[in-house]
Structures are given as structure tokens and as C-alpha cells.
Amino acid sequence: MGKWPALDKIEMIEGPLDEETYERDLRKLQTRLLDLQIHYLHDRRRAIICIDGWDASGKGGLIGRLVDGLEPKSVHVWRIGAPSPEDQGRHYLWRFWQRLPVPGDWAIFDRTWYGRVLVERVEGFCDKDSWKRAYREINEFERQLTDDGVCIVKLLVHVSAEEQKRRMLDRLSKPHKRYKIGLEDFRNIAKRKEYLEAYDNMLERTDTEQAPWHVIASDNKMQARLTGLKIVADTLGSGMTLTEPELDPAVAAAAFNMWGWTPENGKEGGKGNNKKNGDKK
């Protein structure tokens, strides 16, 4: 697709956003996402939401707001770290195949198969031929999924070096946040130039028509969260007309027999079934 600008040259979202406006817009987006989830569940459609980005870019906060209003049993968040001993020695996509959503479900990946062309490339965990071949493998993998009816949303959460430093220092200063920072973070930050090149190559090579990338500037966390949720809602709802699901006639009949309920009045009818439930009149 079109050539991307260098990642460190994109415009970062600035300007204030008051708390009241943020909370109002957040609730609207979460309600919209819940409506979409219910329709995906009813129609047995599948969705994958991929979230990659820098340490301290706000991926966790975005995911938290994304799942906060959803029906929990049909959404799964997979936080991807280093491969387990069972994963090692297998093709790197194997562990992601095990986590693909079943019909009706959404799968959210906190870091993804793009680790092959990011951390594994930069840190030398695989050879050059392997990570260069991965661009084609990933595109083919995502094409297989979309051809099979899966909707894929890919978000890259970007943070400036200055804001990343501020957030890291905030984690060090607050005991309840220190679990979020480790030695590997300093290793990654020291290689920001190499990671920028890897991100830029990734965007150029894997931004496809069926699974395009969306870059979110996250120096302003509230703006970034609203932007991310809107992209997810717009992508998952593309081409979809939301309609109320039909009432199963057998369920309606059971409700009438149990409580005298009918769709016309939306309340109890005149069958006197309250006595069945122990009510005394």
C-alpha cells in the first residue's frame, strides 16, 4: 500500500482533553463495541485485534478500556512474551494458531507474531534470512485468516522518546508500578534507532489491503485510547448493519408458558403463573 512516513516523524496528538468529555466519549465507544460483539456472537463471526508498540506506550491501558464493557466469555486477551520451551523449535506462528478465536469470539493479542520482525530481528534471536522471510509468511498467514472470514484489526501504538522516558521514570518512582519495568526495557530503549528501522520496515512490508496497519500516537493517553477504540469499532463494523436479533419462537413459547410473557406486551400476561414462583396475591 502507500508508503509510510518514518515512525518518529508522525504527528503526535497534543492538546488537552477534559475528563468529562473523555469519559462520555469512552462510554459511547464501549457501548458501540458491545453491540458489535453481540452481533459477532450471534452471527458466529470471528475477530482478531493485534496491538503492538513500544514499552510504556499505553497498550495495556488501551486493552483495558477495550474489554471493559464487553461480554467476558467470548473475548480473550493473549499477552505474548518469550516463547515457552514447548514453543521453541516449532514454527514461530504455531503458538498463535493455538490462540485463534472460535466462531463468535474475539481474540486480542498484546504483542503478536510481529515479534519475529521486531524484537527477534533487533535482538538477534533469529537469523537475517528468517526475519526477512517472515514478512511473506505473515502476509500469507493473515490472508488465510481473512479469506476464512476473520476480521483483523492491527494497531501500532507509538510514543515519543521523551514521553517514554517520563513514563519509565514514573514507574520507577511509584512502588506499585515498578513491576512494569525490567532490565530488558533499558536494553530495548538503548536500541531505539534499530527498533524504529524495524517498525518502519514492518509497516511498509505488511500493510496490506485485507489487514492494514493503524498507527496511534499515544503521548496523550486519553486521546490515544479513544482513537484506538474508534478504529476497532469502525473496522469491525465496516459493512455491517446492526439489527436486533430475532426472538426464537421456542424461547418465546417457553416464556409464555412459564410467566405468561408475550412479545406484544413485554410483560406478564393473564395466566396466573405468579403462583408458580411462590408469589402470594
Structural write-up:
The protein is α/β, with parallel strands linked by helices and about 280 residues long. It has 2 domains: about 5-235, 3-Layer(aba) Sandwich (Rossmann fold), CATH 3.40.50.300; about 250-280, no CATH class. It contains 10 helices and 5 strands, in the order H-E-H-E-H-E-H-H-E-H-H-H-E-H-H. The chain has helices at about 20-45, 60-65, 95, 120, 130-145, 160-175, 185-190, 190-205, 220-235, 250-260, and strands at about 45-55, 75-80, 105-110, 150-160, 215. The chain has a 5-stranded parallel β-sheet with strand order 2-3-1-4-5, sandwiched between helices. Strand 2, helix 3 and strand 3 (about 105-110) form a beta-alpha-beta unit. The longest helix has 25 residues, at about 20-45. It is globular, with a radius of gyration of 23 Å.
Fold topology:
Elements lengths: L18 H25 L3 E7 L5 H9 L7 E5 L14 H4 L8 E5 L8 H4 L5 H20 L3 E8 L2 H13 L9 H8 L1 H15 L6 E5 L3 H16 L12 H11 L22
Parallel strand pairs: 1-3, 1-4, 2-3, 4-5
Helix pairs in contact: 1-9, 2-9
